[in-house]
Structure formats: C-alpha cells, structure tokens
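To: structure desk
From: M.T.
Subject: fold request, one chain
Message: Could you run this one when you get a chance? Sequence is below, nothing fancy, just the single chain.
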Amino acid sequence: MSHIVTISARLTNHTAVVAACRRLHLPEPRHGTAQLYSGEATGLLVQLPGWRYPAVIDTASGQIACDTFDGAWGEERELHRFLQAYAVEAVRLQARQRGLPVTEQHLADGSIKLSIQES
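Reply: Done. Structure tokens follow.
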C-alpha cells in the first residue's frame, strides 16, 4: 500500500509558495527531489512542522505530493494551514499586480477574510 498522497490544489505560483513559507515562518522552499516513503517527487520542497518528509509542490502541474502515513509522519492540519497561507498570498500578489489594496481579517473559526478595494 502506498503512503503517498497527491493533492490537486493547483499551486502554480512559485512566489506565492515562498510567501506562504515566510508567512508561516517555515524554511525557504528549495527546488529538488525528495525521497518519500514509497517513491520520489520533484518540485519545491516545503518542510512543514513535525513532518518526516517534505511536501513537494510541482508548480508546473500545481500538484502536491506528500506522505503523512495517516498522521504518523505529519499532521494534515499543517498542510491545510499551508494551503490557506498559499491562497492568501496568491490573492495578495494578484491584487498587488493590479494596484489594488488588500485588507486581511482573521476570523474566530481560523479562516481569513480578504477584502480588495477596487477603485
């Protein structure tokens, strides 16, 4: 049985991946090949807190390969936190490119509300 989980989340923006790592105070991602438990994956290597193996992001396809072994090698909530941070940073980058200001509000349920002011 394979332990590798592939998530199709369309993480295609390299700059947003780096910004998400900075937001979460993670090590800077680097491009490389990681040996996961039952295979290899190549892309941006993101080391999430408490994870045995890095999450590997292929920005060409947008997919993430990771191996948590049902939580024994890393908690999936860390991946969800990273995905949220990526989404926030990707939106902020898009808005900045268009010259639009973004405000961010952290809600009680852990979600983040972004407001973009269009002129």
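Reply (cont.): The radius of gyration is 15 Å. Let me know if you need anything else for the meeting.
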